[in-house]
Amino acid sequence: MRAGLRPLCGLFALSLLSACVRLIPETSAPRPVPLPGQPPATDNAFSAGFSRGPSIASLKLGRDDAGAALASFVESCPSLLAREDKSGLTLKEEWREPCRAASSWRYEDAAEFFPAFFETVRVSDGAAFATGYYEPEIEGVRVQRGGYEVPVYSMPSDLVRGWPDDMAESERTGKQPLGRYDEQGKFIPYYERAEIEDGALAGRGLEIGWAKDPVEFFFLQIQGSGRLRAPDGSVMRIGYAGQNGREYAGIGSIMRERGLLGSGPGQYSGSMQGIMQYLREHPDEGRELMRLNKSWVFFREITGEGPLGALGVPVRAQSSVAADPAFVPLGAPVWLDLDRAEADGLWIAQDTGGAIKGANRFDTFWGAGAEARTTAGGMSGRGQALLFLPKGTVARLDAK
What is the CB-side half-sphere exposure of residue 210 using CA atoms within 13 A? Predict the structure, then answer.
């Protein structure tokens, strides 16, 4: 979808990337929605403020870009027509006409579809930050053998929701936390990463596969899905089944605080590749660092196309983006214009992420393989974002 940009920008040194930046022009200030006597709340896109953006025609949407986005949009339409929009921007019925038209629109003419049915909106000031994710493929097997000692667990039956005994009734609001009941019937937190690595779940028949490299598997867990490739070339695709409910810690931030990452002497690159290099060259310290992330992800085998995003449809390389559903209607088109030109263009919001929170925060999906891994691992782009919403949405919102 964006392959044409890579030879020009993606492979140049960072010092040359500035020549590839195209910032979306400002057209008006964000529409504020203040509370009397208080600063505006920003719990969703409507309360964060929004403004009408430039015309889609002015964005010069490319044919391949539009065609790939249209295909993903069509797959997202069932959810757009069924889900309540948490962003406060759209109504289900407003998506009906674009979805009806999209189902029979020729992909070759997709660049004409989006300006015909959509208008752009800038949420808050539109200042965007985008990272990247991918579908890892690591060495792994279904049945344990020598050299493959890292268990890939399915969801354990004792991982349940409940209220801690020492939590006051007045505090028991919202969704119950995840945990387990001990032998005395007391609800306690579930096993953390260190305990699971030390064998807390061993011998229970939960293993659906075995990975070769604990560092590779750690990053596969962060991505939430991936592939296990056996020595005979067979591939097992695994997808997110659940999480242990324990605290997530980004080890990159911890390493940066400790002065391990940077550009100085003895420091490692802050990219995923740099972090992995440190973990391999310092196995004992690296193991302890990984254990600071108490979160553990459980998997299930998935068949057919994948991986699946939050909408239950396959996410597509260079077409699907993760976003915060409080600020982007899931299934909506998103236009990014960043200082990382390979991420410029039209995406469809089809996924979410634990760290993808707030207005104009995105996680771009790059597929599987070595190139996807390199691009996603080094992706950190800033610029502007626009949402594509059905025509007439802004007029309805302004009338409120």
Answer: 14
* Locus of tokens 């289900």: 92
Query: Domain spans of the chain?
Result: 3-132+309-398, 139-301
How many other CB atoms sit within 10 Å of the CB of residue 317?
20
- Distance of alpha carbon 301 from the chain centroid: 20
**Gap between the Cα atoms of 400 and 397, Å rounded:** 5
Q: Which residues, at least 6 apart from 173, have a Cβ–Cβ distance to it below 8 Å?
A: none
pLDDT tens digits for range 215-224: 999 999 988 8
Contacts of 301 (CB under 8 A, 6+ apart): 208, 236, 237, 238, 239
* Banded model confidence at residue 26, pLDDT cuts 50, 70, 90: very low
- How far CA 76 is from CA of 89, 149, 181, 317, 333, in Å, comes to 17, 39, 39, 15, 10
> Contact, 89 vs 46, CB < 8 A?
yes
List, edge to edge, every strand of the sheet that includes 225-229. Answer: 150-153, 207-211, 137-141, 225-229, 235-243, 297-301
What's the chain's average pLDDT?
88
How many beta carbons lie within 10 A of that of residue 291, not counting itself? 18
pLDDT of residue 24: 31
CATH number of this structure's domain 139-301? 2.40.240.50
Torsion angle of C-alpha atoms 9, 14, 19, 20, degrees rounded to 10: 40
Assess whether pLDDT exceeds 80 at residue 87: yes
Model confidence, pTM: 0.72
Q: How does DSSP classify residue 233?
A: S
pLDDT digits (tens, 9 = 90+) for 30-52: 333 333 333 344 699 999 999 99
- Give the separation between CA 78 and CA 81, rounded to whole angstroms: 5
Kindly report the CATH class assigned to 3-132+309-398: mainly beta
User: In this structure, are residues 67 and 110 in contact, taking their beta carbons and an 8 Å threshold?
Assistant: yes
